[in-house]
Amino acid sequence: MGLADIAEGLCVTTEQRDRGVAVADGTAGDLPERLADYADDLPCSVEAAAAVVDAYVGGSAVDAAGHEAGVAPTTAAKVLHLLGLEGVSPVSPQGRELVRDWLAGELSRVDARALSGANEREFALAAFVESHEPLPGAEDVVADAFSRSDDASVAKRDALAETMSGTDDFL
Predict the structure, then answer these.
(1) Which partner for 73 in 66, 89, 122, 165 could form a disulfide, CB atoms 3.0-4.6 Å apart?
(2) Contact 25/144 with Cβ under 8 angstroms?
(3) pTM of the full structure
(4) Crossing angle, helix 46-57 and helix 73-82, to 10 degrees?
């Protein structure tokens, strides 16, 4: 039995997300400068948004990231969602589906909220997440700001580059 026989009948059911060409540009400014293009679409200042992202990427929970940045936890969750960071919806995947049903007019708000188990604030945030797409290009800006070039092991390798021999073949 060959590989073609094994693969017969298999089909791809999902597609990879096309992220385009990967770019790592260490010459651009810091995160608040990079977010300046999105200032009108963010629910807080770009400085506060950058502080939220920095705290969240550093390991803080959404509410703690908001407090560290001086904004409400709901505002922090909105910022993170708009900038393309996932996992900020306060409801389960089934709850998100119920919110989408409510937004589509297929379910009453009272029923959707009751079935999702969300309180008023959680439901409102879930509705925001389901009704607002992340800002185009913002995810790449955030990812680039926290790119591999800031990695300690990369910095150490670069600092010791002169002492290493033959590493160019492997990089």
Answers:
(1) 66
(2) yes
(3) 0.68
(4) 90
